[in-house]
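QA checklist item 7 of 12: single-chain prediction sanity check.
[x] sequence parsed
[x] length recorded as 234
[x] structure emitted
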Amino acid sequence: MLWRTKFLNTVRGDLPFVSPLVSSLIPPLIPTILDNLYLDMNGIIHNSIHIEREDENVPVSEEQIFMAVFQYIETLFEAIKPRKLFYLAIDGPAPRAKMNQQRARRFRSAEATKKLKAGLAPGDPMPFDGNCITPGTEFMAKLSKHLKYFLVKKMSEDSAWKNIQVIFSGHDVPGEGEHKIMNFVREHIASRPLTSSPTRHCLYGLDADLIILGLISHEPNFSLLREEIKFAGK
């Protein structure tokens, strides 16, 4: 279930103050008119690892993950139906300070996975290594190749994709996904004619910092899209 948070710029004096529409459920039958849709892809990839399978004893394959990612993208596209642009960004190489943090975190994750594998009985399925979701790995190279094929196929066969601009920024492009998206948004704002109407942006992602990034964009129509979060026992 998808929820949309809308931010209204209250810095410019020519705009009225309106309370943010926090955790607003997207109506299934009422179309949401938005121009640009941006996807921070890493959250989608991580969610696609935990897909439901008929036999839980069989480990998830790369092909199943790829298909889950494609289905995820199609679901988000159909929910928003962007009119002008669709931007997909995967995390690329991070700055040095962040890279050191990532190495420490993934080292701890690898140690935990090693202990988990050591406790498996003979014949038990090996868990998928989430550390593969890292710029420069063989898994990410395969995923990027399949994603490019998927996007070209949709643009050539699906009429809803033919009249919009589609941009894909892969794991080989430096920068984290959300920052690559925001750099594009700033460049778009700078190049937009003053007489044109404000662009209606929608950004999908699971990171909490997307809330701040959306607010500091100073765009009067900026929405954040994410799934409904349900906590156990509540």
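[x] summary fact logged: The domain at 2-94+138-227 is CATH 3.40.50.12390 (Rossmann fold).
[ ] second reviewer sign-off
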